[in-house]
Fold this sequence. Notes:
Chains A, B: Keywords: Cytoplasm, Glycolysis, Kinase, Magnesium, Metal-binding, Transferase. The structure is a homodimer of 414-residue chains. With 414 residues, chain A is an alpha/beta fold.
Amino acid sequence: MYTKSNCLIAQSGGPTAVINSSLYGAIMEASRSEKIDKVYGGINGIEGIIKGNIIDIFDIPYERIKQMRFSPAAALGSCRYRLKDYLEDEEEYKKLIEIFKKYNIKYFFYIGGNDSMDAVDKISKYAREIGFEINVIGIPKTIDNDLMFTDHSPGFGSAAKYIATTTLELALDAEVYETKTINVLEVMGRNAGWLTASSALVKERLPHLKQLIYLPEIPFNEERFLEDVNKAYKEYGNVFITVSEGLMDEKGNYIGRKENAYHKDAFGHPQLGGVGDYIEKLVKEKIYKRVKMTRLGVTQRCAMHLASKVDFEEAEMLGKEAVKYALFGETGKMISLVRERNYPYTVKTDIVDVDKVCNKEKKMPLNWINEEGNYVTEEFFDYARPLIQGEVKVPMAEGLPYYINLKYAIKKQE
Amino acid sequence: MYTKSNCLIAQSGGPTAVINSSLYGAIMEASRSEKIDKVYGGINGIEGIIKGNIIDIFDIPYERIKQMRFSPAAALGSCRYRLKDYLEDEEEYKKLIEIFKKYNIKYFFYIGGNDSMDAVDKISKYAREIGFEINVIGIPKTIDNDLMFTDHSPGFGSAAKYIATTTLELALDAEVYETKTINVLEVMGRNAGWLTASSALVKERLPHLKQLIYLPEIPFNEERFLEDVNKAYKEYGNVFITVSEGLMDEKGNYIGRKENAYHKDAFGHPQLGGVGDYIEKLVKEKIYKRVKMTRLGVTQRCAMHLASKVDFEEAEMLGKEAVKYALFGETGKMISLVRERNYPYTVKTDIVDVDKVCNKEKKMPLNWINEEGNYVTEEFFDYARPLIQGEVKVPMAEGLPYYINLKYAIKKQE
Lengths: 414, 414
């Protein structure tokens, strides 16, 4: 017989379509373990946990858990909260340990991106330092796909599928008129071009489409851009331009947001957006009047109705694997995906030291971008194509996805 | 035995997700008639037909026709072209009749919105005037739902479903943080609020959500708007604001586009957009900083991947019925939908004089908007709910919808 203890799961950062699949996987795996008694949820990530905002997941009717599995947006809520270094300020860490003790928590799973992995790193190190026994594992999620030491991150495949589908629909729409249209699509992804590049995945379906893709990995040169667009417009008429929200010029100024470059979010990242407007205006003034600009905004990270099945299943698998590794004694690690091959696509999980992952950004390899810096190479297609495969049958009711906000189905612990 | 003659089908105006269902329905019905020999397609609407841009639809492999049925964007291309009055300029009409004679066309079906119905009216009247025998029938389509004398128009239900689903996803996403978010969603629909109102259809799924909806039917009063938002923000925190691109102030100036109010498209309609930016700025400056604005733009009319089954099937039915009525001898008419009841929803087709329909706009009844002018009443829900029901199983291939641009599968007639 084992001595049973409890586990805690929380979510952090910007949500993805499949962030709840990882939660679902972790809950399911934890609930079948003989070592784990109760499964707790931390509401609003680390920020909420410090405040004692904890729920007992087994209190939630299973019907709601199933519904949550197919819902976008972090079911346990999220935060953008950065723990200070414990050498500077130990207060929050003490509160955390108090909570862990109160609920007899020996396993803590944190589903999130770059900054969440920083929390995993700090908490696991602090616990080791003070001799508190706990296994802390990070479960990756980010539509930006910018986490290091994992082939890709859950959330990316679904966002990529949504962006490619939208590209396809917009490009077809533009082709109905004799009058030509220049489409401008602004895509998320901060400093990594993965999502923006995904717009290229329409290539097989629309081989005739002239696409120009501008990624943050390549400094944006306005003159060269105008040459590209002008040439493409003259040769093809219809042109589809996809730009990353994080485009920067040679000096590192965000395009279209020079005046706002110092407006930061809680993690200290500049808040982006506005590139689309800038590019739209530029093309209209310098090249051609009929420009249609689409800024998908947050829809890219919550379009569960178009989730990729591969992504959905991998997210769940990583949730499960994280629990297995924690039970095996691992801590201060992030669970990761290792691609075995592309055709047919197979993947396995591994585990990496989280301090190698956090506070870094994985960008598109420069040799996956063409020489002109305005499109991607075959390597990118091989990489991204498997990740958008398959559809998730989201339950529907009365014409709309049967989503839930778990918040309204849970009771807080006293 | 009948003497066989040919029919011509064309599409016009802004596409919808299901405009090709009507085309498919018309093709299928025409191809089973003993009176019809060949089915021709007019490329790029009236504008292309005048130039002799005609294809033989039976030349297209049936596999492509099936694929087209599930593709957004007008498969035969579209135009924004307004015929002059034939008393003023008969030239174009003579060319049209020439084409009709050359291809022995006795039936002409025009799938489109308000302005396309104007063409149906003018062509049928001209033909009658000069004694040329042809049956001209209009098949309604518009996401704006602003056509008179039909309960609703194909295209609306699918766009409404897309907008409601996006509202649902964005609202859930905003709820993950403790920090509150004011969402601003800019929706199409020119001078009619139907589409913007559809954002309200999330009510049953998110009963706790505070929504404010501003329609072009109610003059926009900035002071009252700020009061509404301020009150909602103080009471609820998260607020979801949906605004129509066609919002106007009491003097008839488009909100956020005062400087551009005279920028017109080819039909003489002002080109809209910019409301979302204006509202975002206003709320940020006067009420609360964390505002997320989404402008879906053209995606609203081409998101076939989320089409409503009711809409899809009605669009096809109207295509078929138009052919039946034409064969029965009708001309100068628009096929229309008559709702029989809401629960269970049933609908039948009828036919109306097209001159009653064209150049008018059906707006939201004022008593379907609440007294405060910032939300809809139960009547709207009863009306719109049935129209977003059911899903269309769009064929998928390699992770993306298996759409086609028919243009690349057809040969032009000499």
